[in-house]
């Protein structure tokens, strides 16, 4: 192993990016761009299938009030995520940890409500086999739920790191990069809630 | 550079954005109840509110407003490509075949 490899400082490397944007942040943005295409494929398919088809009224099958409350929870978790970033930038790791825990609770609650909703729907005979609406509903919300699950796991990991004191005012790129992902998940849900539940 | 870059831009009022998001969600719900018999108006209203909410999240929570232009171009290009994809799909479905 060379001397250069032993003394490698990842934070010093951040300052030498050709774009001026940290590599992990740029990587997350590129990943999110691929995610835009992924969800566009799903949402586009839903819209195309819905045009010209006999489609049931979503409000007759789905619990709009419960999902609206769940949307509120996800928006709140997005706010707590961005507040966690703000507090570590301001140099208050204690408040950062508090907001990370709140984000974790928000994400977990969203997932729990979605599991409850799925169980309720399945018990009442609404499943992916029953209709085109059923299959598209479970595909889109299921993939989104999987993204939320991945986000919750990552938030739990970063919260653990925060409690171990791994983030400082100078070095907290992990929080920012994770925040980008979490806000994107929120953004996708905003679109899904409007077109799947309300339209 | 990264830390400087992060702290150089003003920190947005995240709570104000939250209230906007909450307000727009309530408007969406109200619109869905009011316009349940007019699908065109319902769709138009929902698209507008959902897009405004998505833009607020992207601009302020994801800090796209304060990022370098290349980020906006990168993100917008996929959105434009996606919009074209969906438009072509709808056109295929809706427009009469020759």
What does this structure look like?
- The complex is a heterodimer of chains A (199) and B (98).
- Chain A has helices at 3-6, 10-14, 23-50, 58-61, 64-89, 93-123, 132-163, 173-198.
- Chain A is an all-alpha fold and 199 residues long.
- The relative contact order of chain A is 0.15.
- Chain B is 79% helix and 0% strand.
- At the A-B interface, α3, α5 and α8 of A face α1, α2, α3 and α4 of B.
Which whole number gives the mean pLDDT of chain A?
89
Share in helix of chain A = over 70%
What is the H/E order of chain B? HHHH
Number of continuous helical runs of chain A: 8
Pair with the biggest interface: A-B, 57 and 50 residues
By oligomeric state, this entry counts as heterodimer
Largest sheet of chain B: none
- Helix percentage of chain B: over 70%
Poorly predicted regions of chain B = 1-7
Indicate the topology.
The complex is a heterodimer of chains A (199) and B (98).
Chain A: H1 3-6, H2 10-14, H3 23-50, H4 58-61, H5 64-89, H6 93-123, H7 132-163, H8 173-198
Helix pairs in contact in A: 3-7, 3-8, 5-6, 5-8, 6-7, 7-8
Chain B: H1 2-8, H2 14-34, H3 39-61, H4 69-94
Helix pairs in contact in B: 2-3
Can I get a quick summary?
The complex is a heterodimer of chains A (199) and B (98). With 199 residues, chain A is mainly alpha-helical.
Features:
heterodimer; A: elongated; B: 98 residues; mainly alpha; 4 helices; flat
